[in-house]
Amino acid sequence: MDYKDVALTPPLRFRLSLAVLPLLILATVQPVSGQTGLLVVAHGGSATWNQQVRNTVQEVEWTRGPVEIAFLMGPESDSAGWKPAVESLVARRAQRIIAVPLMVSSFGGHFDQIMFYAGRRKTLAPALATHDHVGDWKPPVPIEVTSALDDAPELGATLYDRWQALTPRDQNRPLYLIAHGPGADSASARWISNIRSAADTLARIGHPAKIGLLQDDASPAERAQAIARLRANISSLSVAAGDSVLVLSVLISSGRIDQVTIPTDLAELPVHYVPTALTPSHHIARWIERQAHEAMIHHTAK
Hints:
Elements: H1 10-26, E1 35-42, H2 47-57, E2 67-71, H3 82-91, E3 94-101, H4 109-117, E4 143-145, H5 153-164, H6 168-171, E5 175-179, H7 188-198, H8 200-204, E6 209-213, H9 220-241, E7 245-250, H10 256-265, E8 271-274, H11 282-301
Helix pairs in contact: 1-5, 1-11, 5-11
């Protein structure tokens, strides 16, 4: 696997070279018998939202077994959801499954939902009960769940690509990244810390990013506070820079959040907003491969 197309700056090249080390170690580890299915799990949305995810997964190279995608919500959550995806992998002779949550953060309700479905959590959060498409069904084979993107260097590489594609005028504006965020304030700091770490390549070339969260699934009071903080921070950043603020969204795919919610939340602020999705991206495809291979190493070492 070649990461040279991801290496955009020396710091990022160093980080990604470290990320490849587990894959080199894998070659010396005794292979696990039987097929290992790869299950990429995403939130899910419209047909367009889901297709952007599919376009990325189509680039994934996985020779250990079959590959499937599961959408937790949206129109395909029944036909292409968790249960049918797992059943398809098993029908194609997968004896174990590695589930990779294609999500920005491991600190959110849908990550916990995946852990519950995989038998790694005992209960499903009440807030997700209305989105449960699995019920009491249990997977017939062991499922290991990896972390979500969090502070992955591939997330930083994708954000760098999106920023680099902008005009020089936009690149010179102060930068503000907006992510969905968790349902509760208690996990907000983890989201912000991880995204800031992933985006450190931009900081190293003189374009540090401020980060805000929508907390779209939070209580009305918490959501209102989150948007108030976001608006105040953008206003302060604009005044300090004497310029409008470049706002990029940090979302897996494009849909209601980047097209409706964020523009509404940014209304009348001094911003230049560019809706930005992380898929499709060859960096994200490489991240999926890396997560799956590292999970194989972990399983084999047990």
